[in-house]
Design goal:
It contains twelve helices and eight strands. By secondary structure, it is an alpha/beta fold. It has an eight-stranded parallel β-sheet with strand order 7-6-5-4-3-2-1-8.
Length: about 260
């Protein structure tokens, strides 16, 4: 059975004191969580240590990015191995985002680069959450299935069956991120089903049905339940709505 997952991507938000206050507030309200779901939070890398060190914090955390290189003269970069040994016992730090739409758009990350990042993370026993999705023009031109299929094939299909079972996929309709627009539940389900069928064609039905696929496009308390009720949507990669504890818990409880 694949996991239901709700992940909060904080992006470049919250300062140290705000992170501490968030953790304290979240811990005080954990009893309100009714769903059987894996919860992950992706803070800015500066605050990974703050979250790992907080008492009573048992929610999984992840990094927002890593380098495609193992080591070397790459100023400002963080390697997968550094992340792996940052939380040596692997009690909290388990995941890393790969290919978020903002990384693709602002930092020109290609599918080839992202495939290398996936490899580095798997080598270090960290789980990639591989992001894919189309822009508005691609949706309007009805090339969105082709775009997403290329992202999956070029970024992931070099992996063998055992390797691909150690990652999560997040579908992000780029036109619905930070715009207030949201894909309808029908549009989201259609793409999630397509991604699963693409996995099935390469691997097999068992593998395709074992990989969690998350929706990541302006998911909020008001629409989370309808989105998560779709048969191929296994949770969400949540942006702005994860920055407030109450709204994040409402979304978690929507599964």
């Amino acid at each position: 059975m694949r996991k239901n997952i709700v992940a909060g991507n904080w992006k470049m938000n919250l300062l140290d004191e705000e992170v501490i206050n968030y953790v304290v507030d979240f811990n005080s309200k954990k009893g309100q969580i009714e769903s059987e779901v894996e919860i992950i939070i992706f803070p800015a890398s500066l605050y990974l240590d703050t979250m790992i060190s907080m008492p009573d914090w048992d929610i999984k955390i992840g990094a927002q990015n890593c380098s495609q290189h193992k080591s070397g003269a790459f100023t400002g970069e963080i390697s997968a191995e550094m992340l792996r040994y940052f939380d040596y016992d692997c009690e909290n730090l388990h995941y890393c985002l790969v290919g978020h739409s903002e990384r693709r758009a602002y930092f020109n990350e290609t599918n080839t680069i992202l495939a290398q990042k996936v490899d580095r993370l798997l080598e270090c026993e960290l789980k990639p959450i591989y992001c894919c999705g189309e822009e508005l023009e691609q949706r309007k031109s009805e090339s969105h299935f082709e775009v997403v299929k290329s992202q999956i094939i070029e970024g992931l299909f070099h992996l063998d069956e055992k390797q691909i079972l150690n990652l999560v996929i997040a579908y992000e309709p780029v036109w619905a991120i930070g715009t207030g627009e949201t894909a309808t539940s029908k549009q989201a389900q259609e793409m999630h089903q397509f991604i699963r069928e693409t996995l099935k064609e390469k691997y097999n039905e068992e593998v395709a049905n074992s990989i969690s696929i998350l929706y990541g496009g302006s998911c909020k308390p008001s629409n989370a339940k309808e989105l998560f009720s779709q048969p191929d949507i296994d949770g969400g990669l949540i942006g702005g709505a994860s920055l407030e504890v109450d709204s994040f818990i409402q979304i978690i409880n929507s599964i």
